[in-house]
Amino acid sequence: MAITPDTKMDLLISLCKRRGFIFPGSEIYGGFANSWDYGPYGAQLKKNIRDAWWDRFVLRRGDVVGVDTPIIMNPKAWEASGHIATFTDPLVDCKKCKRRFRADHLLEAKAAEPGYDKEKPVDLVGMACPECGGTLTDIRYFNLMFKTFVGSTEDTTSVAYLRPETAGGMFVAWKNVRDTMRKRLPFGIAQTGKAFRNEITPGNFIFRTREFEQMEIEYLCRPEDAPKAFEAWLGEMKAWVTDVLKLDPSHVVYREIEDADRAFYSARTVDIEYMYPFGTKELYGIANRTDYDLSRHQEYSKEDLRYLDPETGEHILPFVIEPTWGLDRSVLAVLAEHLDIDDAPTADEGDAEPRMVLRLPPLLSPVKAAVLPLQKKGGLSEEAHALADRLRSEGIAVEYDESGSIGKRYRRQDEIGTPWCITVDAQTPEDKTATVRDRDAMTQERIPIADIAAWIAERLRT
Ligand code: GAP
């Protein structure tokens, strides 16, 4: 039974709900549009991706430092960054059904229609509501930032914003990082955390939501080194996608953004897109933001944000290469890429049945190993509990399960992406060995209990 792109999202959303990865948000109150709760396995999968990112790009590099800045900052920061004036989406409303659309999405859909004359500019003139055929309003611009009030009064002096990206906090903290960390250019500042955008058309499960998590780096360098640093970070992003998320490179598109479509301050932008089941859309991005951000913050804060080159004595405003990763989109791409249905043998010799399996990279799997006693009697429960405790004490995420047939227990672990199931059987008390079943190959290997933690740790390193 093959999974088709048409059925994949439904299968994925129902698996996520059924197996404790991602639930509809606020469900007991009837839900809340486009909000999602990460359940125990989803939260762990997300954390494993975030940890792998921090480990790879902060801990294992001498040229990147991490920070953690507030979600609510001085609103002047968003004035300086241009978000208050220009962080908008163009929207149109249907006068009949009152639905709201992003004008750029309607234009993209029209340009993608079969037989559309690519030479003709696409415009909204004469376009009707795609839902009911009603007349559309003119375009209006809608700021995506969530406004709030800080303190006990609700007036213009207390207006503040939830950050629409984590990047802003790093530019604002740059002066203090520069003054305390004694780093030489080129070097980067990294941050992970929540960002908020009042999206007009959220949707496609966790692809576009109003609250999401980003992992971003602002890599500062001399202006003449920016093209080289851009290439290096693009290479790092490609390696992340294949080595950590294990996405098939043919499912990822690197789209060079044309001059006319780039933000005016960007010298180069590449969008990194993934072939989600609902279409090829943005996963990550990377931009050469020149010295735009630091020069704007310098102007608005009146602080000197230049870098003093200790060798040449020059004061320079660094250029910034900004690779940016969406964490929720990473979760979605990993789940979509690795969801599979194949045939698994049943208890009847020679017979097979379809099994759903999440072939997650072991490093990212929420549970690394399940310990399953073949039966409760004969001291097998005790042996298995002792093994599970031993693995936990080594920092390995383990689940213990003794209920139901062994086949059902394997299926459950396959669906949550557990790479190894360790079966404790009648031989275990005698020779202190257990069998380890591989999720993907479905092969079994007998291993001394004392060696299992090291066996798993070795495989998590690759
Ligand atoms: N600092 C640059 C920046 O924020 P962006 O392309 O607007 O760039 C970066 O966002 C990444 O954040 C995207 O590539 C995507 O992965 C993620 N992202 C953006 N909006 C999102 C949303 N509404 N829901 C989920 N993820 C989103």
For this entry, give a set of tags.
alpha+beta; 27% strand; 5-stranded mixed sheet; 462 residues; BirA Bifunctional Protein, domain 2; globular; Rossmann fold; 23 strands; 3 domains; binds glycyl-adenosine-5'-phosphate
CATH architecture designation of the largest domain: 2-Layer Sandwich
Overall residue-averaged pLDDT value? 94
The first-level CATH class name of the largest domain: Alpha Beta
Enumerate the spans where pLDDT stays under 50 for 5 or more consecutive residues.
Answer: none
Strand content: 25-35%
Number of spatially distinct domains: 3
CATH H level, superfamily name of the largest domain: Bira Bifunctional Protein, Domain 2
| Biggest β-sheet: strands ordered side by side in the sheet | 3-9-10-16-13-12-11
Short description:
By secondary structure, this protein is of the alpha+beta class.
Descriptive account of the structure:
This protein is an alpha+beta fold and 462 residues long. It folds into 3 domains: 5-72 and 168-335, Bira Bifunctional Protein, Domain 2 (BirA Bifunctional Protein, domain 2); 88-143, no CATH class; 367-460, Rossmann fold, CATH 3.40.50.800. 33% of the residues lie in helices and 27% in strands. It has helices spanning 5-18, 40-59, 76-81, 83-86, 103-111, 167-181, 226-244, 292-301, 327-338, 380-393, 406-416, 427-431, 449-460; strands spanning 22-24, 36-38, 64-66, 88-93, 100-102, 140-143, 147-149, 159-161, 187-196, 211-221, 252-256, 268-276, 279-288, 307-308, 315-316, 319-326, 339-345, 352-358, 369-373, 398-400, 420-424, 433-438, 444-448. A 7-stranded mixed sheet has the order 3-9-10-16-13-12-11, sandwiched between helices. Helix 2 (40-59) packs across helix 9 (327-338). The longest helix has 20 residues, at 40-59. The two termini are 31 Å apart. The relative contact order is 0.11. The mean pLDDT is 94. Glycyl-adenosine-5'-phosphate binds at residues 165, 167, 197, 199, 208-209, 212, 214, 216, 282-285, 322, 324, 326, 328-329.
